[in-house]
């Protein structure tokens, strides 16, 4: 993966492990003219995040904290994605055709900034698998079509599926 002032980009079969790391105030990657993944952008890559923090990061489109696509995977425990923002969906995490399996995560005070936003301020699962245990999630939205917490979409193409399970822990 590569890391710069705009966050971390992990591509094509890379694996990156964060342990007690911080990504603060990153602003995303321009992918096909769209800013995706304020803190981390992962495409066909694996991320393990333990005891780490992504905060105050933003994307002008989706995935203020993390953007996962094309069979990317996020695993980990005891981490926080707080105070991140995206314009349209996934202020904390945006998941497209990817997998998330996390434990004891905080996704607090993430936001969606556009009045056209239609996803979750904490998490938006467009397509793929999302499993979280002991999740603490909250957020703010600017428009009437979005929700503050975890939103599991149904826009999977034929032959793909969405599986979404979030068990909230203590606030």
Give a brief outline of the structure.
This protein is mostly beta strands and 171 residues long.
Q: Can you give the helix content as a percent range?
A: under 10%
Quick one: how many beta strands? 17
- Helical element count? 0
Biggest sheet features: 15 strands, mixed
Uncertain spans, ≥5 residues at pLDDT below 50?
1-5
Distance between the terminal alpha carbons, to the nearest Å?
33 Å
Strand content: over 45%
Shape: globular
Rg, nearest Å: 14 Å
- Secondary-structure element order, as H and E? EEEEEEEEEEEEEEEEE
> Could you tell me the mean pLDDT?
84
Structural class: mainly beta
Report on the structure:
The protein has 171 residues and is an all-beta fold. Helix content is 0%, strand content 59%. It is built from no helices and 17 strands. The strands form 2 sheets. It has a 15-stranded mixed beta sheet that branches.
Layout: helices, strands, pairs:
Elements: E1 2-4, E2 7-11, E3 15-19, E4 22-24, E5 29-31, E6 34-36, E7 40-43, E8 46-50, E9 53-55, E10 58-59, E11 66-69, E12 73-82, E13 85-86, E14 93-112, E15 123-141, E16 150-152, E17 162-168
Parallel strand pairs: 2-7, 3-8, 4-9, 7-11, 8-12, 9-12, 10-13, 11-14, 12-14, 13-14, 14-15, 15-16, 15-17
Antiparallel strand pairs: 1-2, 5-6
């Amino acid at each position: 993966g590569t890391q710069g002032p705009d966050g971390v980009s992990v591509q094509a079969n890379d694996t990156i492990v964060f342990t007690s790391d911080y990504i603060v105030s990153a602003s995303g990657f321009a992918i096909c003219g769209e800013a995706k993944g304020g803190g981390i952008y992962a495409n066909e890559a694996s991320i393990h995040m333990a005891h780490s923090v992504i905060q105050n990061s933003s994307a002008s489109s989706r995935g203020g904290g993390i953007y996962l696509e094309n069979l990317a995977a996020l695993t980990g425990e005891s981490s926080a994605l707080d105070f991140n923002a995206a314009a349209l969906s996934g202020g904390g995490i945006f998941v497209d055709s990817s997998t998330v399996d996390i434990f004891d995560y905080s996704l607090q005070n993430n936001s969606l900034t556009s009045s056209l936003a239609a996803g979750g301020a904490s998490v938006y699962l467009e397509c793929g698998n999302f499993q979280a245990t002991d999740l603490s999630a909250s957020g703010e939205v600017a428009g009437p079509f979005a929700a503050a917490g975890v939103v599991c979409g149904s826009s999977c193409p034929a032959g793909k599926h969405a599986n979404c399970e979030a068990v909230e822990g203590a606030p």
